[in-house]
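Friendly challenge for the regulars: who can give me the C-alpha cells for this chain first? No prize, just bragging rights.
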Amino acid sequence: MFDKLCIKNFKKFDTLELKNLSRVNLFIGDNNVGKTTALEAIFSFSCKNSLPAKITNELPHRGENEVRKIFVALERTGAMNELINETNKTFGVKINGIETTDTFGDGLRRWYYLLGNMLIFPNGIHCIDNVDFEFHQRIYGAFSKQLLNYAHKYNNQLFMTTHNIEYMDTFLETLFEMGNNILEKDTRVITLRSVDGIVKSRTLTGLEALQAREDGVDIRL
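First reply, four minutes later:
Bragging rights claimed.
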C-alpha cells in the first residue's frame, strides 16, 4: 500500500503531496479542484509501476459487457455467493444469480460493479470517482461498511472521491461504529483546495475528520 505519494506535473498539478495515507482514502473538496485528477494520477502511477490497479468513474456499471466480465470472474473464483448474500441483505431482494443486471436499478448495479471488482481484483489499488453516485442515502452505511470489509479481506487500497457531505458523514459514523480504531488506523480524509491557483492537500485521520464534523466544521473548505 502507498503511505505517501508526490504527484508532479500531472494535468493541473505542479506538485501535490499526499501524506499519511492508509487503506481507505476519501478525497473531498470543491468541484473542479482536482479530486478526479488525483485518482487518475494514482492510477497512472500504479500502472507504470506494474501494480494491479482499477479506476472507476460513474458509467461502467451501466454496461452489460462489464457486468458479464464480473459474473464470469466471480463464478470462476467461487465468490459469487458471497456477493449475492451481501446484496440481498442490503437491498432487501432475493437474487439467486447475477448473470445480467437488466432488471436492477442503477444503485444495485453500481454496488455489484464496485464490490465485484474488489473481489476479482485483489491486492490492488482501486480508484473510485464519486463513490456515492447512484446510491440512495439509506444504503450509505451498508456500502461504506462493505468497502472497508472487502478492502481488508482482499487486501485492496482504496482512493475515492465525493463532494457529498451527507455521504462523508455517514461513512465516518459507520466506520466509527465498527470499532477497533478503524477511523484512526485505516481511514483518511484528504481535503483538496486551491490557494492562489495552487492545489494543496490536508490529510486527516477518519477520527479527526469525525470530530471536526461533530464540532460543525465543513472540512471540505
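Strands lie at 5-10, 13-18, 24-29, 53-56, 125-128, 157-161, 187-195, 198-205. The helical segments are 35-48, 64-77, 80-91, 106-120, 140-153, 165-177, 182-185, 206-214. Your move, everyone else.
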